[in-house]
Write a structure and sequence with these properties.
Protein name: Glucosamine-6-phosphate deaminase
EC number: 3.5.99.6
Enzyme class: hydrolase
Order of helices and strands: EHEHEEHEHEEHEHEHE
Helix content: 25-40%
Strand order of the largest sheet: 1-10-9-6-2-3-5
Family: Belongs to the glucosamine/galactosamine-6-phosphate isomerase family. NagB subfamily.
CATH class: Alpha Beta
Bound molecules: fructose -6-phosphate
Radius of gyration: 17 Å
Catalytic activity: alpha-D-glucosamine 6-phosphate + H2O = beta-D-fructose 6-phosphate + NH4(+)
Oligomer: single chain
Shape: globular
Length: 251
């Protein structure tokens, strides 16, 4: 992977924004891979600014998000459906009908609806393939090296599928649910690591000292399911954009 060390999130965001804006100019129906979390927010802001300043037509742009909770209605403010619409679709002015989140077809279907839930993952991978694949996938990374909801131990060949959320992830995310872990969903649906690796370009963003160890494992450790992001070493076009703090453990 190519590692770019930047001063701050804004500088990282501009690199992503320029890259994606040029892509959309060349390919108006570009397919963007989208992530939630704090790491991509400056990148979405930078892209939205370039789109506005340069009057780029984004009406044909398509999007596929990485992951979603199971069991939340789509219009729940903390669903990734809502989050992606709030942070990406609205500021960029994308066509909401062209942006997909893995749980959309389930719309809060109860976990007991096993057949429906089991079919949603393969259907999502098929939809990505039918769209011609993802052009640029933006990624954040967990302090344990997770990407999407692929926690350590996830198969590097995995497709989109339903998973149970790690206890630590539920504790970490309780802040979005009135600090009440009982309100945090127990399951999720996430693009697999194999799904992520099929995107033509991966852009992973990480900022702050808390990510330094995960970045060290990702860039300089062996490729291993113990650090899902280390799978980026297998990808022919992966760009890792990090600040000095996240880079502090690299040799
Ligand atoms: C988001 C996602 C997660 C985050 C990761 C980092 O859709 O799948 O893997 O990218 O947890 O989160 P932040 O960016 O908030 O540090």
């Amino acid at each position: 992977a190519e590692v770019i060390i930047v001063k701050n999130e804004e500088e990282a965001g501009e690199i992503y924004g320029r890259c994606v804006a040029d892509l959309i100019k060349a390919k108006p129906d570009a397919v963007l891979g989208l992530a939630t979390g704090s790491s991509p927010l400056a990148a979405y802001r930078a892209l939205a600014k370039i789109v506005k300043d340069e009057s780029i037509d984004v009406s044909q742009v398509r999007g596929f998000a990485l992951d979603e909770y199971l069991g939340l209605p789509l219009d729940h403010p903390e669903s990734y459906h809502s989050t992606i619409h709030r942070t990406v679709v609205e500021p960029l002015g994308l066509d909401p009908a062209k942006v997909h989140v893995p749980g959309d077809v389930l719309n809060g279907a109860p976990l007991e609806d096993g057949d429906k839930i089991a079919a949603a993952g393969p259907a999502y991978d098929a939809a990505i393939e039918a769209a011609g694949g993802i052009d640029v996938q933006i990624l954040g990374i967990g302090t344990d090296g997770h990407i999407g909801f692929n926690e350590p131990g996830s198969s590097l060949a995995s497709g989109t599928r339903v998973k149970t959320l790690a206890e630590q992830t539920r504790i970490d995310n309780a802040r979005f649910f009135d600090n009440d872990i009982n309100q945090v969903p127990t399951h999720c649906i996430t693009q697999g690591i194999g799904t992520v690796l099929k995107a033509r370009h991966l852009v992973l963003l990480a900022f702050g000292a808390g990510k330094a160890e995960a970045i060290e494992e990702t860039v300089e450790g062996g490729v291993s399911a113990f650090c899902p992001a280390s799978a980026l070493q297998l990808h022919p076009h992966a760009t890792i954009i990090i600040d000095e703090e996240a880079a502090s453990r690299l040799r």
